[in-house]
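Quick one, C-alpha coordinates below. Sequence please?
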Protein backbone atom coordinates (compact mmCIF):
# COMPACT_ATOMS: atom_id res chain seq x y z
CA UNK A 1 0.00 0.00 0.00
CA UNK A 2 0.93 3.66 -0.27
CA UNK A 3 -0.04 6.07 2.49
CA UNK A 4 -0.44 9.49 0.91
CA UNK A 5 -0.89 12.52 3.11
CA UNK A 6 0.60 15.65 4.63
CA UNK A 7 3.43 15.59 7.21
CA UNK A 8 2.43 14.49 10.69
CA UNK A 9 -0.77 12.73 9.62
CA UNK A 10 0.34 9.33 10.95
CA UNK A 11 1.80 7.52 7.95
CA UNK A 12 4.81 6.05 9.79
CA UNK A 13 2.73 5.26 12.88
CA UNK A 14 0.19 3.34 10.81
CA UNK A 15 2.94 1.31 9.15
CA UNK A 16 4.39 0.37 12.54
CA UNK A 17 0.96 -0.60 13.86
CA UNK A 18 0.46 -2.91 10.87
CA UNK A 19 3.85 -4.53 11.44
CA UNK A 20 3.23 -5.01 15.16
CA UNK A 21 -0.26 -6.44 14.76
CA UNK A 22 0.81 -8.79 11.98
CA UNK A 23 3.87 -9.96 13.95
CA UNK A 24 6.04 -9.33 10.91
CA UNK A 25 9.64 -8.18 10.78
CA UNK A 26 9.73 -4.43 10.21
CA UNK A 27 12.31 -2.89 7.90
CA UNK A 28 12.36 0.87 7.46
CA UNK A 29 14.13 2.86 4.76
CA UNK A 30 14.01 6.50 3.72
CA UNK A 31 14.12 7.03 -0.02
CA UNK A 32 16.01 10.25 0.61
CA UNK A 33 19.09 8.31 1.79
CA UNK A 34 18.58 4.75 0.54
CA UNK A 35 19.36 3.37 -2.90
CA UNK A 36 19.15 0.07 -4.78
CA UNK A 37 21.87 -1.49 -2.61
CA UNK A 38 19.87 -0.89 0.57
CA UNK A 39 16.73 -2.26 -1.08
CA UNK A 40 18.57 -5.42 -2.18
CA UNK A 41 19.89 -5.91 1.36
CA UNK A 42 16.34 -5.73 2.75
CA UNK A 43 15.12 -8.22 0.15
CA UNK A 44 17.98 -10.62 1.00
CA UNK A 45 17.15 -10.45 4.71
CA UNK A 46 13.48 -11.01 3.92
CA UNK A 47 14.34 -14.12 1.89
CA UNK A 48 16.52 -15.41 4.72
CA UNK A 49 13.71 -14.94 7.27
CA UNK A 50 11.22 -16.70 5.05
CA UNK A 51 13.48 -19.65 4.33
CA UNK A 52 14.91 -20.14 7.83
CA UNK A 53 11.78 -19.70 9.95
CA UNK A 54 9.71 -22.61 11.13
CA UNK A 55 6.13 -22.80 9.88
CA UNK A 56 4.30 -22.24 6.65
CA UNK A 57 5.56 -19.16 4.88
CA UNK A 58 8.17 -18.34 7.55
CA UNK A 59 8.43 -14.86 9.04
CA UNK A 60 6.97 -12.16 6.87
CA UNK A 61 8.75 -8.87 6.25
CA UNK A 62 7.15 -5.45 5.99
CA UNK A 63 9.26 -2.84 4.22
CA UNK A 64 8.28 0.69 5.13
CA UNK A 65 9.70 3.07 2.53
CA UNK A 66 9.34 6.68 3.58
CA UNK A 67 9.29 9.40 0.89
CA UNK A 68 8.80 6.72 -1.78
CA UNK A 69 8.36 9.45 -4.41
CA UNK A 70 12.08 10.22 -4.03
CA UNK A 71 12.98 6.90 -5.68
CA UNK A 72 13.60 7.14 -9.40
CA UNK A 73 12.09 4.68 -11.86
CA UNK A 74 15.05 2.27 -11.73
CA UNK A 75 14.96 2.20 -7.94
CA UNK A 76 11.21 1.62 -7.90
CA UNK A 77 11.56 -1.13 -10.50
CA UNK A 78 14.03 -2.93 -8.19
CA UNK A 79 11.17 -3.44 -5.74
CA UNK A 80 8.83 -5.01 -8.29
CA UNK A 81 9.94 -8.68 -8.16
CA UNK A 82 9.89 -8.84 -4.35
CA UNK A 83 6.50 -7.15 -4.16
CA UNK A 84 5.03 -9.31 -6.91
CA UNK A 85 6.33 -12.50 -5.29
CA UNK A 86 5.09 -11.45 -1.86
CA UNK A 87 8.58 -11.65 -0.41
CA UNK A 88 8.04 -8.24 1.20
CA UNK A 89 4.89 -6.35 1.99
CA UNK A 90 5.62 -2.84 0.85
CA UNK A 91 4.17 0.16 2.67
CA UNK A 92 5.20 3.40 1.06
CA UNK A 93 4.66 6.86 2.48
CA UNK A 94 4.58 10.06 0.49
CA UNK A 95 3.45 13.65 0.70
CA UNK A 96 3.17 13.79 -3.10
CA UNK A 97 0.41 12.43 -5.30
CA UNK A 98 1.38 8.80 -6.10
CA UNK A 99 -0.36 9.01 -9.47
CA UNK A 100 2.41 11.37 -10.58
CA UNK A 101 5.36 10.20 -8.50
CA UNK A 102 5.13 6.38 -8.42
CA UNK A 103 5.66 4.53 -11.69
CA UNK A 104 2.69 2.70 -13.16
CA UNK A 105 4.07 -0.84 -12.89
CA UNK A 106 4.59 -0.51 -9.14
CA UNK A 107 1.46 1.55 -8.53
CA UNK A 108 -0.72 -1.10 -10.16
CA UNK A 109 0.35 -3.53 -7.43
CA UNK A 110 -0.41 -1.13 -4.58
CA UNK A 111 -3.47 0.29 -2.93
CA UNK A 112 -3.39 4.02 -2.23
CA UNK A 113 -4.81 5.39 1.01
CA UNK A 114 -5.15 9.17 1.18
CA UNK A 115 -4.73 10.58 4.68
CA UNK A 116 -5.99 13.99 5.67
CA UNK A 117 -4.25 16.47 7.94
CA UNK A 118 -5.35 16.00 11.53
CA UNK A 119 -7.87 18.44 12.94
CA UNK A 120 -6.92 20.67 15.87
CA UNK A 121 -9.13 18.50 18.09
CA UNK A 122 -7.30 15.34 16.98
CA UNK A 123 -3.89 16.91 17.55
CA UNK A 124 -5.10 17.98 20.98
CA UNK A 125 -6.02 14.37 21.74
CA UNK A 126 -2.52 13.22 20.74
CA UNK A 127 -0.93 15.86 22.96
CA UNK A 128 -3.07 15.02 25.98
CA UNK A 129 -2.35 11.31 25.60
CA UNK A 130 1.37 12.10 25.46
CA UNK A 131 1.10 14.24 28.60
CA UNK A 132 -0.94 11.60 30.45
CA UNK A 133 1.58 8.92 29.56
CA UNK A 134 4.55 11.06 30.52
CA UNK A 135 6.20 10.65 27.09
CA UNK A 136 6.31 14.34 26.25
CA UNK A 137 6.63 16.28 29.51
CA UNK A 138 8.01 13.80 32.02
CA UNK A 139 6.84 14.49 35.55
CA UNK A 140 5.65 18.07 35.06
CA UNK A 141 2.20 19.16 33.88
CA UNK A 142 1.03 21.19 30.90
CA UNK A 143 -1.51 24.00 30.94
CA UNK A 144 -4.65 23.46 28.87
CA UNK A 145 -4.24 26.74 26.99
CA UNK A 146 -0.71 25.69 26.05
CA UNK A 147 -1.98 22.41 24.60
CA UNK A 148 -4.81 24.18 22.79
CA UNK A 149 -2.33 26.64 21.27
CA UNK A 150 -0.11 23.84 20.00
CA UNK A 151 -3.09 21.92 18.63
CA UNK A 152 -4.23 24.90 16.56
CA UNK A 153 -0.85 26.26 15.48
CA UNK A 154 0.62 22.92 14.37
CA UNK A 155 -1.62 22.97 11.27
CA UNK A 156 -2.59 19.32 11.54
CA UNK A 157 1.00 18.08 12.01
CA UNK A 158 1.09 15.95 15.16
CA UNK A 159 4.86 15.53 14.92
CA UNK A 160 5.39 19.30 14.98
CA UNK A 161 3.08 19.64 17.98
CA UNK A 162 4.80 16.84 19.93
CA UNK A 163 8.29 18.13 19.17
CA UNK A 164 7.36 21.62 20.32
CA UNK A 165 5.76 20.23 23.50
CA UNK A 166 8.86 18.16 24.29
CA UNK A 167 11.12 21.17 23.75
CA UNK A 168 8.94 23.38 25.93
CA UNK A 169 8.91 20.71 28.67
CA UNK A 170 12.70 20.30 28.52
CA UNK A 171 13.18 24.06 28.81
CA UNK A 172 10.72 24.30 31.71
CA UNK A 173 12.48 21.44 33.51
CA UNK A 174 15.90 23.08 33.10
CA UNK A 175 14.53 26.29 34.58
CA UNK A 176 12.98 24.46 37.52
CA UNK A 177 9.39 25.17 36.45
CA UNK A 178 6.60 22.77 37.40
CA UNK A 179 4.41 23.13 34.34
CA UNK A 180 4.51 23.92 30.62
CA UNK A 181 2.88 27.29 30.08
CA UNK A 182 1.49 29.05 27.01
CA UNK A 183 4.51 31.37 26.95
CA UNK A 184 6.84 28.36 27.01
CA UNK A 185 5.18 26.59 24.04
CA UNK A 186 5.01 29.85 22.09
CA UNK A 187 8.75 30.16 22.56
CA UNK A 188 9.28 26.52 21.57
CA UNK A 189 7.09 26.67 18.47
CA UNK A 190 8.31 30.10 17.37
CA UNK A 191 6.85 31.19 14.06
CA UNK A 192 5.32 28.27 12.22
CA UNK A 193 7.20 27.70 8.98
CA UNK A 194 4.80 27.89 6.06
CA UNK A 195 3.87 24.38 4.97
CA UNK A 196 4.57 24.87 1.30
CA UNK A 197 6.49 22.71 -1.13
CA UNK A 198 7.05 24.61 -4.36
CA UNK A 199 7.94 21.36 -6.11
CA UNK A 200 4.94 19.35 -4.94
CA UNK A 201 1.16 19.24 -4.64
CA UNK A 202 0.89 22.35 -2.47
CA UNK A 203 2.60 24.31 -5.22
CA UNK A 204 -0.43 23.59 -7.41
CA UNK A 205 -3.00 23.73 -4.59
CA UNK A 206 -2.10 27.29 -3.64
CA UNK A 207 -1.92 28.66 -7.17
CA UNK A 208 -5.27 26.98 -7.83
CA UNK A 209 -6.68 28.61 -4.71
CA UNK A 210 -5.27 31.98 -5.78
CA UNK A 211 -6.86 31.68 -9.23
CA UNK A 212 -10.25 30.72 -7.80
CA UNK A 213 -10.14 33.44 -5.14
CA UNK A 214 -9.22 36.09 -7.72
CA UNK A 215 -11.83 34.82 -10.16
CA UNK A 216 -14.30 35.03 -7.28
CA UNK A 217 -13.48 38.75 -6.84
CA UNK A 218 -12.16 38.42 -3.28
CA UNK A 219 -9.00 40.60 -2.97
CA UNK A 220 -8.36 39.52 0.63
CA UNK A 221 -8.32 35.83 -0.29
CA UNK A 222 -6.23 36.60 -3.36
CA UNK A 223 -3.66 38.47 -1.26
CA UNK A 224 -3.63 35.73 1.38
CA UNK A 225 -2.76 32.97 -1.09
CA UNK A 226 -0.23 35.28 -2.78
CA UNK A 227 1.41 35.86 0.61
CA UNK A 228 1.58 32.11 1.31
CA UNK A 229 3.25 31.46 -2.04
CA UNK A 230 5.77 34.28 -1.65
CA UNK A 231 6.54 33.30 1.95
CA UNK A 232 7.01 29.71 0.81
CA UNK A 233 9.62 30.71 -1.77
CA UNK A 234 7.50 30.32 -4.90
CA UNK A 235 9.03 31.58 -8.14
CA UNK A 236 7.33 34.97 -8.80
CA UNK A 237 7.49 34.28 -12.54
CA UNK A 238 5.27 31.23 -12.00
CA UNK A 239 2.76 33.41 -10.14
CA UNK A 240 2.72 36.27 -12.63
CA UNK A 241 2.28 33.91 -15.59
CA UNK A 242 -0.97 32.80 -13.98
CA UNK A 243 -1.93 36.43 -13.55
CA UNK A 244 -1.50 37.05 -17.27
CA UNK A 245 -3.53 33.95 -18.09
CA UNK A 246 -6.32 34.93 -15.68
CA UNK A 247 -6.46 38.45 -17.13
CA UNK A 248 -7.53 36.99 -20.48
CA UNK A 249 -9.32 33.83 -19.40
CA UNK A 250 -11.48 35.23 -16.59
CA UNK A 251 -11.62 39.00 -17.23
CA UNK A 252 -11.11 39.36 -20.95
CA UNK A 253 -12.90 42.24 -22.62
CA UNK A 254 -14.91 43.06 -19.54
CA UNK A 255 -11.79 45.07 -18.63
CA UNK A 256 -9.12 45.00 -21.38
CA UNK A 257 -6.75 46.97 -19.11
CA UNK A 258 -6.38 43.90 -16.89
CA UNK A 259 -4.17 42.17 -19.45
CA UNK A 260 -2.00 45.28 -19.80
CA UNK A 261 -1.55 45.50 -16.04
CA UNK A 262 -0.78 41.78 -15.70
CA UNK A 263 1.85 41.89 -18.45
CA UNK A 264 3.31 45.03 -16.85
CA UNK A 265 3.56 43.11 -13.58
CA UNK A 266 5.37 40.33 -15.46
CA UNK A 267 7.85 42.88 -16.80
CA UNK A 268 8.34 44.26 -13.30
CA UNK A 269 9.12 40.79 -11.99
CA UNK A 270 11.78 40.35 -14.68
CA UNK A 271 13.34 43.82 -14.34
CA UNK A 272 13.07 44.36 -10.59
CA UNK A 273 12.87 40.91 -9.02
CA UNK A 274 12.06 40.13 -5.41
CA UNK A 275 11.61 41.54 -2.87
CA UNK A 276 10.51 44.78 -4.58
CA UNK A 277 8.44 43.00 -7.25
CA UNK A 278 6.05 41.90 -4.51
CA UNK A 279 4.43 45.34 -4.74
CA UNK A 280 3.67 44.86 -8.42
CA UNK A 281 2.28 41.38 -7.67
CA UNK A 282 0.07 42.78 -4.90
CA UNK A 283 -1.14 45.59 -7.16
CA UNK A 284 -2.00 43.13 -9.89
CA UNK A 285 -3.71 40.71 -7.49
CA UNK A 286 -5.98 43.46 -6.14
CA UNK A 287 -6.80 44.86 -9.59
CA UNK A 288 -7.53 41.44 -11.07
CA UNK A 289 -9.73 40.56 -8.10
CA UNK A 290 -11.85 43.70 -8.39
CA UNK A 291 -12.03 43.82 -12.19
CA UNK A 292 -15.33 42.80 -13.81
CA UNK A 293 -15.22 39.20 -14.96
CA UNK A 294 -16.00 37.63 -18.32
CA UNK A 295 -14.97 34.32 -19.87
CA UNK A 296 -16.76 35.05 -23.15
CA UNK A 297 -13.53 35.19 -25.17
CA UNK A 298 -12.44 31.70 -24.15
CA UNK A 299 -15.93 30.30 -24.68
CA UNK A 300 -16.06 31.89 -28.14
CA UNK A 301 -12.76 30.34 -29.19
CA UNK A 302 -13.84 26.95 -27.82
CA UNK A 303 -17.08 27.18 -29.80
CA UNK A 304 -15.14 28.00 -32.99
CA UNK A 305 -12.71 25.14 -32.37
CA UNK A 306 -15.60 22.74 -31.77
CA UNK A 307 -17.21 23.82 -35.05
CA UNK A 308 -13.94 23.19 -36.93
CA UNK A 309 -13.54 19.74 -35.33
CA UNK A 310 -17.08 18.75 -36.18
CA UNK A 311 -17.32 20.23 -39.69
CA UNK A 312 -13.73 20.63 -40.83
CA UNK A 313 -12.10 23.83 -42.06
CA UNK A 314 -14.18 25.57 -44.72
CA UNK A 315 -12.34 26.98 -47.76
CA UNK A 316 -11.31 30.62 -47.66
CA UNK A 317 -13.48 32.71 -50.03
CA UNK A 318 -11.54 33.71 -53.14
CA UNK A 319 -11.78 37.44 -52.35
CA UNK A 320 -10.04 36.90 -49.01
CA UNK A 321 -7.07 34.90 -50.28
CA UNK A 322 -3.61 36.42 -50.35
CA UNK A 323 -2.82 35.95 -54.07
CA UNK A 324 -5.06 38.66 -55.53
CA UNK A 325 -2.57 41.52 -55.34
CA UNK A 326 -3.43 45.22 -55.53
CA UNK A 327 -4.16 47.37 -58.59
CA UNK A 328 -4.21 51.13 -58.85
CA UNK A 329 -7.49 51.24 -56.92
CA UNK A 330 -6.65 50.72 -53.24
CA UNK A 331 -10.24 49.84 -52.43
CA UNK A 332 -10.68 46.97 -54.90
CA UNK A 333 -8.28 44.10 -55.69
CA UNK A 334 -8.24 41.71 -58.61
CA UNK A 335 -9.73 38.89 -56.54
CA UNK A 336 -12.90 40.83 -55.81
CA UNK A 337 -12.02 41.92 -52.30
CA UNK A 338 -14.23 44.80 -51.16
CA UNK A 339 -12.13 46.85 -48.75
CA UNK A 340 -14.34 48.14 -45.89
CA UNK A 341 -12.43 51.45 -45.81
CA UNK A 342 -14.36 52.43 -48.92
CA UNK A 343 -17.71 52.29 -47.10
CA UNK A 344 -19.37 54.52 -44.51
CA UNK A 345 -18.18 53.77 -40.96
CA UNK A 346 -15.61 51.44 -42.57
CA UNK A 347 -18.19 48.65 -42.73
CA UNK A 348 -18.75 46.75 -45.96
CA UNK A 349 -21.41 44.13 -46.80
CA UNK A 350 -19.06 41.53 -48.31
CA UNK A 351 -19.22 38.11 -46.58
CA UNK A 352 -16.10 37.20 -44.61
CA UNK A 353 -16.81 33.49 -44.19
CA UNK A 354 -17.47 30.63 -46.58
CA UNK A 355 -21.19 30.16 -47.22
CA UNK A 356 -21.11 26.91 -45.21
CA UNK A 357 -20.15 28.85 -42.08
CA UNK A 358 -22.17 32.03 -42.60
CA UNK A 359 -24.64 32.44 -39.76
CA UNK A 360 -22.56 30.58 -37.19
CA UNK A 361 -22.32 32.43 -33.88
CA UNK A 362 -19.32 31.79 -31.64
CA UNK A 363 -18.94 34.97 -29.62
CA UNK A 364 -21.74 35.59 -27.15
CA UNK A 365 -21.05 38.74 -25.09
CA UNK A 366 -22.09 38.35 -21.48
CA UNK A 367 -23.46 40.94 -19.05
CA UNK A 368 -19.99 42.31 -18.29
CA UNK A 369 -19.49 43.11 -22.00
CA UNK A 370 -22.67 45.11 -22.60
CA UNK A 371 -20.82 47.84 -24.50
CA UNK A 372 -19.25 45.29 -26.84
CA UNK A 373 -22.63 43.61 -27.31
CA UNK A 374 -24.21 46.91 -28.41
CA UNK A 375 -21.33 47.65 -30.76
CA UNK A 376 -21.51 44.17 -32.27
CA UNK A 377 -25.22 44.54 -32.92
CA UNK A 378 -24.69 47.93 -34.64
CA UNK A 379 -21.94 46.47 -36.82
CA UNK A 380 -24.07 43.51 -37.87
CA UNK A 381 -26.97 45.79 -38.77
CA UNK A 382 -24.68 48.08 -40.83
CA UNK A 383 -23.26 45.06 -42.68
CA UNK A 384 -26.74 43.69 -43.37
CA UNK A 385 -26.28 40.64 -41.11
CA UNK A 386 -29.15 39.08 -39.21
CA UNK A 387 -28.74 40.17 -35.56
CA UNK A 388 -30.91 37.43 -34.12
Amino acid sequence: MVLYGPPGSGKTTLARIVAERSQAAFEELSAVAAGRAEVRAVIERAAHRRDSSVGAGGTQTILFLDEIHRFNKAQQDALLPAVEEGLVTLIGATTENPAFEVNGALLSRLRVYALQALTAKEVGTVLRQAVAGGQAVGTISADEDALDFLAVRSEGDARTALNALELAAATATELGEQRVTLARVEDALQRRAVLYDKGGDRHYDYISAWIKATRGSDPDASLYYLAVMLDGGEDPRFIVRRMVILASEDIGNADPHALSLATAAAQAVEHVGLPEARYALAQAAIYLSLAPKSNAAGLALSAAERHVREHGAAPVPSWLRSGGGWDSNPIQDRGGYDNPHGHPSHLGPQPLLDESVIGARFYQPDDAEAELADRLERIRRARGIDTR
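Residues 324-334 have pLDDT under 50 and may be disordered. The radius of gyration is 32 Å.
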